[in-house]
């Protein structure tokens, strides 16, 4: 049994009931190109490997790798990449065969990992992640909600976001101070994704939500003026949290017109 390292944000899932539910939600099949981010002690790795026959794991902690390799030897073919996941090129890793990405993500770096995956969305079939429940709630939030924001918009424009179930602190060792939740992300077909520059889209979304109490006309000053916002069919006096994700695409088109 490994000792969790605080600086890696490690919380090892050990409750078999929740592990079984996660594996069932992923429903791995032989031939799937499974990639796990942060396998830890392998609690989720080995049930997935048993079903899929082979998979790849990305692990930063070198102390965990020898035991993972040893235990995997009798189960299937496990390729381990020792790296920071933010440095991994998922598109190159896929080699033309879309990946299914899974992981119990460290809370402190979950958003950067999500945005990193979005950069490689064309190489991904689906993603199943366990994250802090508060983050999953924000990912799936609808317009008008107090927790609807940048993360909601950017993810929902590219993926179908489905919150699956909650996992309590006691299911982990050591237990975190908050509830966790499992979420499924399925990339939308290319024709349904934003047809605008991703960096400009993010700039508009970031500015719109930077000060939530500001109207769009004030929040987007320097990017779009009130008449340009109104020309998109959007009230410049509205606040960002009331807009549907597609509205931010319209605003970005106006920015680039």
From TrEMBL:
Keywords: Cytoplasm, Methyltransferase, RNA-binding, rRNA processing, S-adenosyl-L-methionine, Transferase. It is found in: Cytoplasm. S-adenosyl-L-methionine binds at residues 11, 13, 38, 59, 84, 104. It holds the Pfam family RrnaAD. PROSITE patterns: RRNA_A_DIMETH, SAM_RNA_A_N6_MT. Its main location: cytoplasm. Its EC number is 2.1.1.182. It catalyses: adenosine(1518)/adenosine(1519) in 16S rRNA + 4 S-adenosyl-L-methionine = N(6)-dimethyladenosine(1518)/N(6)-dimethyladenosine(1519) in 16S rRNA + 4 S-adenosyl-L-homocysteine + 4 H(+). GO terms for cellular component: cytosol. Residues 18-189 form the Ribosomal RNA adenine methylase transferase N-terminal domain. It is an enzyme of class 2 (transferase). GO terms for molecular function: 16S rRNA (adenine(1518)-N(6)/adenine(1519)-N(6))-dimethyltransferase activity; RNA binding. PANTHER family: DIMETHYLADENOSINE TRANSFERASE (PTHR11727), DIMETHYLADENOSINE TRANSFERASE-RELATED (PTHR11727:SF7). Specifically dimethylates two adjacent adenosines (A1518 and A1519) in the loop of a conserved hairpin near the 3'-end of 16S rRNA in the 30S particle. May play a critical role in biogenesis of 30S subunits. Belongs to the class I-like SAM-binding methyltransferase superfamily. rRNA adenine N(6)-methyltransferase family. RsmA subfamily. This is Ribosomal RNA small subunit methyltransferase A. It comes from Oleiagrimonas citrea. The gene is rsmA.
């Amino acid at each position: 049994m490994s000792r969790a390292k605080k600086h890696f944000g490690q919380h090892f899932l050990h409750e078999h009931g929740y592990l079984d539910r996660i594996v069932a939600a992923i429903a791995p099949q032989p031939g799937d190109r499974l990639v796990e981010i942060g396998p830890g002690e392998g609690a989720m790795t080995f049930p997935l490997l048993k079903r899929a026959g082979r998979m790849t794991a990305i692990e930063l902690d070198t102390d965990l790798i020898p035991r993972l390799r040893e235990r995997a030897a009798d189960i299937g073919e496990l390729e381990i990449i020792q790296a920071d996941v933010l440095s991994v090129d998922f598109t190159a890793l896929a080699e033309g065969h879309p990946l299914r990405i899974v992981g119990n993500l460290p809370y402190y770096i979950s958003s950067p990992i999500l945005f990193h995956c979005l950069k490689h969305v064309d190489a991904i079939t689906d993603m199943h992640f366990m994250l802090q429940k508060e983050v999953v709630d924000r990912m799936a939030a609808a317009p008008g909600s107090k927790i609807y924001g940048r993360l909601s918009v950017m993810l929902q424009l590219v993926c179908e976001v489905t919150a699956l179930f909650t996992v309590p602190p006691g299911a982990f060792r050591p237990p975190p101070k908050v509830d966790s939740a499992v979420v499924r992300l399925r990339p939308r077909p290319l024709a349904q994704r934003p047809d605008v520059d991703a960096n400009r889209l993010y700039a508009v979304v970031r500015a719109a939500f930077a000060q939530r109490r500001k109207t769009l006309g004030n929040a987007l000053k320097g990017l779009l003026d009130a008449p340009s916002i109104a020309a998109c069919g959007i009230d410049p006096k509205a606040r960002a949290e009331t807009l549907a994700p597609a509205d931010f695409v319209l605003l970005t088109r106006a920015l680039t017109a």
